[in-house]
Design a protein that fits this description.
Rossmann fold; 30% helix; five-stranded parallel beta sheet; alpha/beta; 2 domains
Length: 497
Amino acid sequence: MRIAIGGFQHESHSFAPLPTGWREFLTPGGFPPLQRPATLVETLRPTSLPSAGAIAALEEAGAEIVPLTWCFANPAGPVTAEAFERIAALMLAALSDALEAGPLDGIYLELHGAMVAEGHDDAEGELLRRVRAVAGPGVPITASLDPHANMTARMVALADALVPYRTYPHVDMKPAGAQAARLLIERIRRRRPWARAFRQADFLIPLTMQCTMVPPMREVLEERARLAEAHRCAELGFCFGFPYADFEGCGVAIAAYAEDQEAADAAAEALRDHLHRREADFAGGVLPAAEGVAQAIAIARAATRPVVLADTQDNPGGGGHGDTTGLLAELIRQDAQRAVLGLINDAESAAACHEAGVGATLSLSLGGKSDGAPLRVTATVEALSDGRFTCTGPMGKGNPADLGPTALIRVSSGVRVIVVSRKMQALDQALFTHLGVDPAAQGIVALKSSVHFRAHFQPIAERVIVVAAPGPVVADPATLPFTRLRPGLRLRPGANR
């Protein structure tokens, strides 16, 4: 059994300040760089990525793995036409070479599902169309998806099964990849497709309310599992949606795969109806930065564990650049003590710190490269690194990080900042420990993240407070200037009903 494997991951924010180009796929902070066939399997095998799970499952089944192309770029603005076309061309050329060497029994793809490219709003749908065109209609294709996918009817029609992760934070990426690979093997052996059904919900879910560690999403995932078993689904895929993509496919979607159409339709409709009944439960807010910092300072005075502040609107995992300074300015203004912020993405400031050296004091115009609002600080350099480390947390364990020249600086008596040269969502404690900072020993830990941080930081936290400082990953998507969403889609849960 010859199985091709490849991947193309990007989560695209239509309103983010910076586009995603070719270079962003070559040097993604916190993930491996673009892989070609010769290096793909051995590079991805030790990671926490879906492809690692697929590789293990396929090898266990005795399949011959035929590597294609794999890449990832951190969330930002839409992928440029150049980057999309170059990467798609690499993947299709490798697929053509694989077919030249002999027939393929199937194809597994690691996709995100919320990629928007210049000229292709449904970029994964377009990629699947091209892969299907080269491979032919008879070759089974399965794919793993991030649950933030804006899954479309086109994607469902072109793939034999789509398998979203079940968790946010995404601690089950490898199991999702393994499940997609196992379904691919089952599809090959059964010699016929499953019946499939596609449904969309009528409201957007804010990113901060999509966490599966707490209700209501935790309970919805439990209902998903119950319905999948009740209707004997091969897969009941539930995507929460990425509510920052301005096209008609944006939003919550469900894909059911079953032996017959009646079962697939029933499962998809039951899960959609359950979501609609729970709609009001997904309405939620965050604290303004000033209020959140004040609460954190008050709690930290008596706490034995750190208070974690999540700077959700500058989340690099949602399209932020990781360089806004609103929360940092508030920590300094309120004289926070024993506080450390991870991170500020500012290559110029990081380079200046490396040039000055450990122990030096210098003036920096810190951050603000994406929004034109840097913060003037006097910084003392406490530690330097090359920004290379291996993630250790539940979500990223084994993933290599390369953030470029990195510095730990003190910007007030009680506030320190990690400055990096490439952005990464602050989801792993290794970001701190590789510079000699123990997050558990701090009073306040401020993180550029919305939800992923919870997997590694919530267990050590006295309290988690999600705050809104200026940034493009707005906590309330209804405030964005959408123009192309489908009619009737509610931008806030429960709105206009």
